[in-house]
UniProtKB/TrEMBL annotation:
Family label: Belongs to the LysR transcriptional regulatory family.
Name of this protein: LysR family transcriptional regulator
UniProt key word Secreted: no
InterPro entries named among the record's database cross-references: LysR-type_TF_proteobact-type, LysR_HTH_N, LysR_subst-bd, WH-like_DNA-bd_sf, WH_DNA-bd_sf
Source taxon at top rank: Bacteria
SUPFAM superfamilies, per the entry: Periplasmic binding protein-like II, Winged helix' DNA-binding domain
Domain HTH lysR-type: 15-72
Keywords: DNA-binding, Transcription, Transcription regulation
An example molecular function term from Gene Ontology annotations: DNA-binding transcription factor activity
GO term, biological process aspect, one: DNA-templated transcription
PANTHER family for the chain: HTH-TYPE TRANSCRIPTIONAL ACTIVATOR TTDR-RELATED (PTHR30537:SF5), HTH-TYPE TRANSCRIPTIONAL REGULATOR (PTHR30537)
Length: 316
């Protein structure tokens, strides 16, 4: 797509949609270098393209300094147009993709590894069979959502994104509870309350919605926090699960991760589940004036499966 803006400037004769997107991206991430890295472009080429664009427009768009990059007043005005153009283009292409009888196009989903191991089973299989024309990219993350680095259509995370340009939709409610292997429990005096946990070996999985080494427990109507110490702290859910199954201590996991291991008696739930803490899994996506049909189909399938917890009805 070519967008004709002016006719009598040197160096450039047309501004492409890629140029529009580049301006939007630089403004979003606040750096030529980060924009280049996000688009897998050589950093000098980004600088060169912006200089050509500024030469064509006859104005400076970005004020460069060694410490920060900022938009000039002219750049602020141009950015508004660039954002409108890209949004209208996305809206037009999305509308065309959804007018056909069968959903198609690319869908980029990022989720905590904790959830991907569940999604990658029946949910993913059902989705690709039911919608074979959708090009699905599923990646794992171990980080809290970050608006400046959000380059997906959809993210599943335990922490919502506090940014007005994004929607954090409650997807499911799941209980996080305390588990250990029968072999480990046979070797210790089983604790009676979570307050005793620091006396035992712990397998700590770090969660994006909590401080590292922090667990929660439900004390009646009050949610209390535990600051824990352990020689075993992990960011990867599969590693934490395997270490727990192998008898290396007590873990705190969402119930949907542990259900099949409870059924096979490879794990035991501590305290009869009375200290389990409910938590929300969030579906996070950019706020746009159009509906992304592919994303909505994936959200609805993940929610209705029940495999990620109890579905939440309605949007936030």
């Amino acid at each position: 797509m070519q967008i004709e803006l002016l006719n009598h400037r040197p160096c450039m004769h047309q501004i492409s949609l890629d140029d529009i997107r580049l301006v939007n991206l630089i403004a979003k991430v606040g750096s030529f270098a980060r924009a280049a890295d996000a688009n897998d472009l050589p950093r000098p080429s980004v600088t060169r393209r912006i200089k050509q664009l500024e030469s064509y427009l006859g104005v400076i768009l970005f004020q460069r300094s060694t410490r920060r990059l900022s938009l000039t007043p002219e750049g602020e005005v141009f950015l508004q147009h660039c954002q409108t153009i890209e949004m209208e283009w996305l809206q037009a292409t999305e509308r065309m993709k959804t007018t056909g009888s069968e959903p198609s196009g690319k869908l980029r989903v990022s989720a905590l590894g904790l959830f991907n191991r569940t999604i990658a089973g029946p949910i993913l299989s059902q989705f690709v069979r039911q919608y074979p024309k959708i090009e699905l990219e599923l990646t794992s993350t171990w980080s809290a959502p970050d608006a400046s680095k959000f380059d997906f259509d959809l993210m599943f995370n335990t922490k919502p994104l506090d940014d007005k340009s994004f929607i954090s939709e409650p997807l499911t409610i799941t209980n996080r509870d305390f588990y250990a292997s029968p072999d480990y429990l046979a070797s210790i005096k089983i604790p009676e309350t979570p307050l005793e946990l620091n006396e035992f070996e712990l397998v700590i999985l770090n969660y994006t919605d909590l401080e590292n080494g922090q667990w929660l427990w439900q004390d009646g109507n009050t949610v209390r926090s535990l600051a824990l110490q352990s020689h075993l702290k992990l960011d990867e859910a599969e590693a934490a699960l395997q270490m727990t199954l192998l008898g290396h201590g007590i873990c705190w996991f969402p119930d949907f991760v542990c259900e099949k291991y409870l059924a096979s008696q490879q794990l035991v739930r501590l305290f009869d589940g009375k200290f389990a803490t409910p938590g929300t899994l969030w579906a996070i996506y950019p706020r746009t004036p159009y509906d992304n049909q592919r994303m909505r189909l994936f959200i609805d399938m993940a929610k209705s499966s029940g495999l990620l917890g109890k579905p939440v009805t309605g949007n936030s």
